[in-house]
Structure formats: structure tokens, C-alpha cells
Amino acid sequence: MPPAGARTYSAALMSSIIRPELAAASAPAVPFRHRHLLGIDGLSAADISEILDIAGQYVELNRRGGAKSSLLRGRTMVNLFFESSTRTRTSFELAGKRLGADVINMAADGSSVRKGETLLDTAITLNAMHVDVLVVRHPESGAVKLLSDKVNCVVMNGGDGQHEHPTQALLDALTIRRRKGRLEGLVVTICGDVLHSRVARSNIRLLTTMGARVRVVAPPTLLPAAIERLGVEAHTDMKKGLAGADIVMMLRLQNERMQGSYVPSTREYFRFFGLDYDKLDAAKPDALIMHPGPMNRGVEIDSEVADDFGRSVIQEQVEMGVAVRMACLDILTRALRSNAPALEVTN
Amino acid sequence: MPGANGRGSPVVYTNARIVDPASGLDLEGALVTEGGLIRDFGPALFNDAPPFDCELVDCEGKILAPGLVDMRVQLREPGEEHKETIQTAAEAASAGGVTAMVCLPNTDPCIDDVAGVEYIARRAREVRATKVFCYAAATQGLEGKELAEMGLLAEMGALGFTDGPRALAEAQVMRRVLAYSRTFDALILQHPEEPSLAKGGAMNEGETSMRLGLPGIPAMAEVMMIERDLRLVELTGARLHLMHVSTADAIDAIRRAKAKGLRVTCDTAPPYFTLTEGDIGEYRTFCKISPPLRTERDREAVIAGLADGTIDAITSDHAPQDQETKRVPFAQAENGVVGLETLLPLALALHHKNRLPLVELLKKLTSAPAAILRLPLGRIAKGVPADLVLFDPDRPWIVDAKRFKSKSKNSPFDEMPVQGRVLRTVVAGRTLYEAQAA
């Protein structure tokens, strides 16, 4: 049973609630009308709020424990990961299972399945298997979109190349909103390898859509061209970038990019772009520290800062991840679950 | 077959608007071909006595011009015949009004020895349609290291030397290629892109690549390679042709070099004056080409470069690719657009939009490339080969890639409404293509 104290409920949860007037009050003005979740790009502020509202309820539900739902009973969800991942895949798997779906993990990071032809073959195979929800992670930007054009199930982007990682941005937003009570007007500083980061791109899109002021800090070799066109301020000086920040979001810097190709060395990077208490002083005293994980301690973030109980919300992000993915599954399968064909669903 | 005239007996084209860009001629009249050559033409020809005992083609007032000379195509034969063959490319060329084309040496094996040049010549004779010429490799194996046998290859008929879609990257090698080419006053053709700056890139670097999360190829990669090469031309005095220039700054650099009197020419292709990086949309791999589609500013600069004469020629940049190499994630997709069958209407759009006078436009498709290649083609004159295209510059139609003669259908222009339709293509007096009645 849903918690009595929660203010809003998803449509599915609503069916088990006795007071229908609550449902009417919480119904969003514009219903979520996207068939897939391919990115934050294209989502409105109302879409994002709706996901976060419902995710908020799932947080409570998860915290009460034993809250396994039968929302997706008899539905099949496939996690198709062309890139190794433990945390994201597990989080999606848990989200699916908590909603009662049959979850199958397909790891496909072997070299033979990386070829594009096989990607479309995979789509044909999945269609024949009558999968309901497909979560895809792929090392190439746009690969998830390509697959979504060919499969006849709901597709969720679990990260494509350097393009988008929408559920990560949503879980970050949920974490911030629960801690700060809002997103609008907050100063969020994203630090690190913005160039190669799909997390940064999704976060920038989401946060600017929700009215936050976003800054990025990185050496110029790790900043993409024209990044300011996404409505962010770009800095190369960590302290300037962090001045007065409410949120400090660190990005992972991959090892192979630290050996001279983009930055000269790990120690030089940490000296100028690693988050330590000295640099953190520039941010607001109650600034939150976030990291999408997995962390390189001593490279982009000082261990002590990462474990700062008062300010680091890195653990909480993981918890929010499951709730956000449950919310996305809930919303995206509405059409599937209702008898009447919903808007924009053609098959 | 109507108008097909293998015996070389006379064919008379009456009621034509004859346009010869080389001489600036634009008149209404008739033209007669015989024995594969243009025998005569003029406003008064056959005015009194319509000829008899020979074939008559009524042009209905449409434009009769020299057949298009396409100085940059990839034919994929030998080696990738599943994408295109000389036969299918020739059929596509005829449907597009192209009567002569020059292929790049990036076949498999590549054309870096006399046998390769001979092979293309032999296949062209067998196909007996479009005139097919080739460039040969500038360096052995297209590896950018050791010089190819330019003299022997030129004797065998290679029209120029290039490493095709690969840039001649190393400055010392380029210097020697240019210097050595002077022995034969050979034409060197460069794919101007600094490979170390372009490495790993999938599209133009800028806002769109940032949004799509695709690695970018900066405009600078083209500009700095061209500026370097122009210095080397100044040093060596060689003849250099820069292929498919795509950026505003590069066109500026070429404009300055021409003003200085350097022997430099360049071309562009329809994608660069028709599309921009924005057309990639959500990862449309049919818009993936090399050099990449650029910005609106660059597109405008290409048109300005065509209008003021900085850009000498328009090529189809025909690059057939099959489904397997295009229906993949964007960064993994091959470059290329098939272009032979859309070359004329896409170029004519510049005329319809009043950006370029018709005669100037046709010059860049006929006599200008022929002059760069030193071919006696691309013009209408008494005694020259009867390579002609009859077209209606205004007729609207919708591009339908499914109906392309080309084996590959990778066109970003599919379903695009265009204006200007080829009605008949004639090579050496023989009609190779005739449009179905509309």
C-alpha cells in the first residue's frame, strides 16, 4: 500500500487508493506523451516534474521495504548493455523487479555484437520475442535512437556514447530537489570531463529547463565546442566556477584520458581540477557534493570530501536512481497497461 | 531505340535552345550530329528545308547543352561491386546528364599502377556509355609516403594524381608530389583536411556536434591544410586542385591565392550548397560526408565562391554506400552521398534562386572542369564530340532514390522536390538515356 503521507500518486498506484479526489488533484496538466525516454532533450519542465513527483513516491515506497508492486506483472523488460556497467544495470534491474516485471539482462559488449548490422539484427530478434521495455546502453551516440526506430517496444536510454544519460540527470535532479526543495534558481557547477560526458549533457539540459543556473568547469581540452549554447557559463578556474554554488557535481575522468592526451597527468589534474576542501570553500557552506560514480578517488575528488557525511549525497544518488527508474517505467508503460490505445502509440 | 544511333549517321536536334557556356552562346536553333561529332548548329539551320533521310529530335524549346563533365566520382569498381559498378554508375550518369566522369583511385586494389588505369579504360570501353576517366594515386598504395609513377600513369591516361578521400598529409611528401608533378605539368588533387585534427571526427565541430555528443571535425582542419598547400604551390609552381571545399575561411584563402596568380582551382558538390550540419537532425547517416556538412555561414560562402568564380567547378562527389555501411550508429557509418542523378537539378536550384546565371552555372558543370582536366569536352562547337544533354530547367519533380539507376541509394535528397529534369543524354552522338514522357 502506498504511504498515506505522499501527496501525489502515479495513475497505477491511484487505482488502489480510496480517495479518488487526490488523483484528480495530482493529474498533470499536460500528460506525458513520449513513447520512449531517449534523452532529456525534448522533455518539458512539466514532463520532468511529473517524473520527479512520481519518483518521489517510489522513494517512500522503497524505504518502507517489501513494497513489491504488480504493476508490470507479466511484462518483459530487457537490459541490453553494449557497454559494461554494474551500477546502472543493477539499478534498472531492481526498478523493473520491484514493479513486478520479468527482467532479463543481455550483456553485449563482446566485439562481434558491436557492429551496427548486428544492432539492427538485435532489434529484429527482440521484436520476435515480444519484449515490452528495452533499456539500452551503447558506446555510440545515437545508437539508442537508431534501435528505437526499429523495435516495437518502449525504449529507455541507459546512456548512449557522449550524447545522453537521461535517468542519471533525473536521479540527480530528484536528489537535489529533495535536499534543496527546488531546482529553480540554484547554482549548479558541473566539473570535469564535460567533453566526453553524456551525464553532463543530460544534466545541463534538465537543469537549465528547470531554471537552475548551470556552470561547467574544466580545462579547455575537456570542454566541448559551443558548450555555452546550452545556456551554461564555462570556467577554467575551479574556484571561480564554484563561487557561491549550491551544488557541486563532479564527473568521472577516465584513466585513458589522463595520460597526456587531454590532461598531462593525474596529479596535475587533481591539483587544479580535483575537488578538495580548499576549492570547495568557494562554494556555499551548505553546497551538496554529487558524483555519478564510479569515483576516481584522488583524481577528480578527494576521498575525504567524497565521504563527507554532511555534504556528500553520493549514496543518496544511488537510492534515487532506483526510484527514478521505477517512475520512468511506470509512466512509459501507461499506454501498454491501459486498454485504450494511448496518444502516439501506433502499434 | 529512338535516337540511338550506333552507326554515326546524322541526327538533327530541332527547336532547341542551344547553350554553350564556354563561348557564352545561347540561341534558338538546330544542331546536327554525325559520326559521333557535332557537325553543325545555328539559328538558321534547316529553317527552310527540314532534313530528311536522317533522324529528327524535336527539342520543344528545351535546353541543349554540352553533357556534364563530373570531375569527382567514386565508382567502387574494382573491389566493391556490391555498391556500384562502372556499368551501373554509367547508367546513373546518363540519367543525370553526365557524359564524362573521372573516378578516384581509391578502389581495391587502388589505381596506383598502369594496369589499374588500363583496367578502367577497358571497362569503360566495354560499357560503351559515359566516358570514364580516372585519376591515379599520388603516392603508392595511397599511403602518403612514396611517389607513384606519375609519368607512366599520365601516359596511360590518368588525368591527375590524388590519394582520393585521403589527404596528402605529410608536408614533405606533399612538397615532393607537387614538385615532381611539374615534370609533366600534371594536376594534383588534394582532399584538404588535416587528418590529425579530423581524426575520430564524425561531423562538423560546433554546437550541433556538441548537442549530439558526436566527435567533431573542426573547420580549421580544412583551412590550415589549404593554407599550407597554397604555400607549397607558391614554392613549387605546381598545378593544384582542391576538392570539395566546404568552409568559408578556406574559400577566402583560395580567393586570395587566385588573386596572387597561383595555379589553383577548386570544386564543391551539391551537399555543400544545399545542406548544413543541421540536416543531420537525429543522426541521419545519409548526411554523413567527408568533408562534413558545415554551417549556414559556410553554405552561403560556398554559393558566394561559386558566384565570384573562386570555386571553378561543381562535381557530383558521387560516393555510393550500401545499407550495411549506413544503417549503423552515426560515428560508425561510412561517408558519402550518391550524386550523379541529382547533380543537375540541385545545381539548377542556384539558378532558380537567382544566385548564379544559368550559363555561369552550366560552365561549372561542363567547360570549366574540362579545362582543368585539359579534356576537349564540355562545349558545343563544330567538330567536337557530340556529348550533349537535353534538359528542361524548370520541370518540377520529386527525387525518388528507389528509382535511381545507381546500385546504392544513399541520398539525403530522397523525397526532395527539385526543378530541372534531364530529357536526353547523348554521348558521341548516341542517345544513352531518354526520359519517360512525363
Characterize the structure shown:
The complex is a heterodimer of chains A (347) and B (438). Helix content of chain A is 38%, strand content 13%. Chain A is α/β, with parallel strands linked by helices. In chain A, β3 (133-138), α6 (143-148) and β4 form a beta-alpha-beta unit. In chain A, α7 crosses α8 (198-209). Chain A starts with 10 loop residues before the first helix and ends in a 10-residue tail after the last helix. Residues 1-25 and 340-347 of chain A have low confidence and may be disordered. Chain B contains 14 helices and 18 strands. Chain B has helices spanning 86-95, 114-127, 150-156, 171-181, 195-198, 207-212, 219-236, 248-260, 270-274, 296-307, 323-326, 343-352, 358-365, 367-373; strands at 11-20, 25-34, 37-42, 55-58, 63-66, 68-73, 98-103, 131-134, 161-162, 187-190, 203-204, 216-217, 239-242, 264-268, 313-314, 388-398, 417-427, 430-434. In chain B, strands 1, 2, 3, 4, 5, 16, 17 and 18 form an eight-stranded mixed β-sheet that branches. Chain B has a five-stranded parallel β-sheet with strand order 9-10-13-14-15, with helices on both faces. Chain B has a three-stranded parallel β-sheet with strand order 6-7-8, sandwiched between helices. In chain B, α4 packs across α7 (219-236) and α7 (219-236) runs parallel beside α8. Chain B is globular, with a radius of gyration of 21 Å.
